[in-house]
Amino acid sequence: MCYVTAERAECVQLCVLSHLIAILVVVMHRIKILSGHLRPPGSSEHRRDLWRSECGCAGSSSPDDVVVVHGRRTAVGKAKRGAFKDTTPDELLSAVMTAVLTDVGLSPDKLGDVCVGNVLQPGAGALMARVAHFLSGFPETVPVYTVNRQCSSGLQALFNIAGAIRSRSIDLGLACGVESMSLRSIGEPGDLSSRLTDNDKARDCIIPMGITSENVAEKFGISREQQDAFALSSQQKAARAQDTGAFQREIVPVSTRFVDADGSERQVTVDRDDGVRAGTTLAGLGKLRPAFKPDGSTTAGNSSQVSDGAAAVLIGRRSAVEVLGLPVLGVLRASAVVGVPPDLMGIGPAVAIPAALEQAGLTVADIDVFEINEAFASQALYCVEKLGIPLEKVNPNGGAIALGHPLGCTGARQVVTLLNELRRRGRRAYGVVSMCIGTGMGAAAVFEYPGP
């Protein structure tokens, strides 16, 4: 009898608990409804506040947050003929690595790891990064490695360092990206299986990037006129940003050697992106021939520029950053890498951005600035239109069509540009960095600028 009575008592307790939970759910739902009357129904601030109260993440502060302390980049040079055509990647990398730590007064021995995004990897990858490491005065005790996820390599470096911080392997790390497309170019694909041609997806991985742009334009109806208009906007925004000094805070002046056409050598200081063409016009863009197929719409004018450059971003666990008295420029709120069809690789951001936003508990409307890599105008336009992003929120200081796309550097460069733009706006805000990736992928990250 006692056993039966105890069992019944337990059942009664469970029933009471279930009713209490049901009442609590109803009450929370009612609170949501009532709070909705305090702001316009579509208000992004309303959505942010509800999400903060439920998840306690965006807009909140945790000792375990992965935060961006500081970032710098070099100017971006035109490959083969620009300011950095004779500058080795280790020198470009050393310039930004040194500048970031000098700016915040941090000794390099405080770093737990250094990860460098690089695509056209010389010396099996590690040599160039380690040389730059020593040229920067870093001690041998600090490790370094490279990562190659093609166009997202600089962002992937940040993801890798963030992962090490979250796993508590390290407290602080430097995420970098570098590329010299002047001294190294994309050549043969290397040793591949003879079975490659038997598999459609595998075969699509070796489709030239320009053809994937044409595929996107044809499949989704992105016209030549739309692409040229987007390219013109990129150039105009970059020229305006350059003229107003918007890039001054993020660019590290680099003194380097430059060999003239007659073979004479001189020292130059490079502190200005040299791919920006302020005089670009729609008429001029319209005269350019298709670059990849005779009847195509992708041209040199509405595609990213082949470039040289480097960027570095210092990140750490918030608790460690605060102990060292370092500033917080941004907070990494979410990251995502996704796969898409290789022959339509440019659509990557259209899939990666929603994945990252969902992880962050945010929507497109909550984001103030989108830095989307302009590999090609066709794919950037598709992604913007697919996600319903207002064009005024996209690359407000221009993108890769005007600034250039040094493959391994771009992701890190975008983070630096994004957080500096959000800081200029002088209030707490959210931003997204995203890009498509060759062979069919996309990557995206969500950052929060905490405010002044």
Structural overview:
It holds the Pfam family Thiolase_N. Pathway: Lipid metabolism; peroxisomal fatty acid beta-oxidation. GO terms for molecular function: acetyl-CoA C-acetyltransferase activity; acetyl-CoA C-myristoyltransferase activity. It catalyses: tetradecanoyl-CoA + acetyl-CoA = 3-oxohexadecanoyl-CoA + CoA; an acyl-CoA + acetyl-CoA = a 3-oxoacyl-CoA + CoA; 3-oxohexadecanedioyl-CoA + CoA = tetradecanedioyl-CoA + acetyl-CoA; hexanoyl-CoA + acetyl-CoA = 3-oxooctanoyl-CoA + CoA. The chain crosses the membrane at residues 12-31. α5 packs across α14 (410-425). The chain is of the alpha+beta class and 452 residues long. 40% of the residues lie in helices and 18% in strands. Mean pLDDT is 89; it is low at 1-12 and 14-56. β3, α4 and β4 form a beta-alpha-beta unit. The chain is built from 14 helices and twelve strands. It is globular, with a radius of gyration of 24 Å. The protein has helices at 2-36, 44-55, 89-104, 126-135, 153-166, 200-204, 209-220, 224-243, 282-286, 318-323, 348-360, 377-387, 400-403, 410-425, and strands spanning 66-73, 77-78, 113-117, 144-147, 172-180, 254-259, 265-270, 307-317, 330-339, 369-372, 429-437, 441-449. The strands form two sheets. Strands 1, 2, 3, 4, 5, 8, 9, 10, 11 and 12 form a ten-stranded mixed β-sheet that branches. A two-stranded antiparallel sheet has the order 6-7.
Offer a quick outline of the entry:
The protein is of the alpha+beta class and 452 residues long.
SSE topology:
Layout: H1 2-36, H2 44-55, E1 66-73, E2 77-78, H3 89-104, E3 113-117, H4 126-135, E4 144-147, H5 153-166, E5 172-180, H6 200-204, H7 209-220, H8 224-243, E6 254-259, E7 265-270, H9 282-286, E8 307-317, H10 318-323, E9 330-339, H11 348-360, E10 369-372, H12 377-387, H13 400-403, H14 410-425, E11 429-437, E12 441-449
Parallel strand pairs: 3-4, 3-5, 10-11
Antiparallel strand pairs: 1-8, 1-9, 2-8, 5-8, 6-7, 9-12, 11-12
Helix pairs in contact: 3-4, 5-14, 7-12, 11-12
